[in-house]
Records
---
Amino acid sequence: MQNSFANRFLALSRERGHLCVGIDPSSEALAAWDLPHDFSGLVRFCDTLVGIAAPRAAVIKPQSAFFERFGPDGMQELKRVVWQTRAGGALTIVDAKRGDLGSTATAYGDAFLGAGSAFGSDAVTAHAYLGIDALAPLFTRAKSHGAAVFVVVRSSNPEGTLLQSARTAGGLSVAESFCEAITRQNAADDVGPIGAVVGATLGDETAGIVARLPNALFLAPGVGAQGATVADVKRAFGGAYARCIPSVSRAIAMAGPNEMALADRIERYADESRLA
Ligand SMILES: O=c1ccn([C@@H]2O[C@H](COP(=O)(O)O)[C@@H](O)[C@H]2O)c(=O)[nH]1
């Protein structure tokens, strides 16, 4: 599809670099900006950060949990963040890590994916704990709406290893079997609508995963506060870095609330994230 998420990201990344700015309005982040821990604080945090990030970064990733904790008002703000991101020319990945089956998976697509969905996001993150093939309705919606789904394959946190590295009956690890399924889903495209979340913190393990995903985008959280650098991501993903979206949340927000300092931090990360 001409106007697919992948094609839009590849074009934007040539212009702006590969950076994804994570929007994580946690209690700590609001306190660090001297904002009240209520809806007004949430709105001021998001309006400032997204207003500066959306015209500079390729992708904005609001973490849904930090909006959900404010109830319906928070979800309304999540929708406004998606709109503000689009106005700034960036793509949105709502980090909601949804995952279910059948009509419920369809409903998650109706909620998040593409024009006509409730939130109107360009992409959503998903879990495959109920089976990656159970996410088929979400994948179908992504394909027909020029949107994307990023399935957690190998997360950035150490606690993920036990489950994601466990061996399936066929001998592949759970993560490797997800890679095979994603590659099947993306078979019709040079770069397909089903991406993989692969942590920025995995080091040498990354190459084996990337080799199994020749036509997928990668969302790589873990840069900054979790210890990885953009240089680590470039090294780990090697030739596949052209399809990689390194994501930074706290390490950017912590430059605020000063707007010039925030803009400077985002521009530095965006410059560093460019393909050499
Ligand atoms: O494997 C994963 C998947 C998602 N995340 C999320 O990304 C951000 C990371 O925030 P930082 O402040 O840049 O560490 C956060 O919303 C996580 O829930 C992840 O870290 N790892």
---
Amino acid sequence: MSDGQWSPSTGQIVVSGLTKEYKNVRAVDNLSFTVEPGRVTGFLGPNGAGKTTTLRMLLNLVTPTSGTATIGGRRYADLTDPLRHVGAVLEASSAHKGRTGINHLRVICAAAGLPKQRADEALALVGLTPAAKRKFKGYSLGMKQRLGIAAAMLGDPRVLILDEPANGLDPEGIRWMRGFLKGLAHEGRTILVSSHLLSEMQLLADDVVIIAAGQLVRQGPVEQVIGSMAQGQRVRVRTPNAEELTTALKAQSATVAVDEHGVLQVDGVDAPTVGRTALAAGVELHELTTERPDLERVFLELTAGKAGIR
Ligand SMILES: Nc1ncnc2c1ncn2[C@@H]1O[C@H](COP(=O)(O)OP(=O)(O)OP(=O)(O)O)[C@@H](O)[C@H]1O
């Protein structure tokens, strides 16, 4: 993993004032954030937020209108032997349909000047050894995703960049991916993953970078981002006397909404206050639970009004 080319900030990704303007849309708008080694960073944003464009600029596949993106202190275009430094999977792997999985990887090794045995090692790394000699056209979507990751790992890169890697994976595949990426981060590698699956991101990511309409909305450790929301805990209440309790809670300055199952969602007061208010009003309770905000709720609040097709 080392050839002396890396700066002390090895493996850190720095995006600074990055902007990409297309004819009709500013896909990425003065975006700045950092991604640290040894951590999994989730890159989140509504559809059309500019995630793919940002990742493509990082990998020199799209030229920025202005700003810079560096990996280990260098632009991707300035890396010699980039496959040894940065692995990327931008969309479900494509390969020659008639080629076997192992041959697909061997062809990449040959083109990149990597030893042939890296193909076997990378295939083993993603658990595809049993399917090594099967043709790509017979691979399931999950196997194709794994093969794409194997290809990205051929150069034993310090930095791994993945665009929606969980797309099309079954629950077992998603669990495997989570363990695999966490393991790579544990080895000190930098893992940047874009995803729509917020509950999965909450399990996988150490840090998140949230963007909307091309701009940074929030960045930081997952727990900190969740904890930073103005609205803290929400209390969930089931009662046969919803109207009475709602009136009593509103008198305490609580905000009360009712979900599709008739459960009250109470913000602004804690569970003991709800319990006391119910007791004082003579209201029967069937459930009283405190819900911690999760990444999905925080994401929706942070990106409200900034989502949508541009
Ligand atoms: N080559 C292009 N030419 C013109 N507009 C583009 C081009 N690529 C992206 N865009 C526009 O830039 C904006 C950001 O797109 P991008 O694909 O980066 O978003 P995204 O966050 O990856 O979205 P999604 O989650 O839907 O994949 C969108 O409005 C998109 O239509």
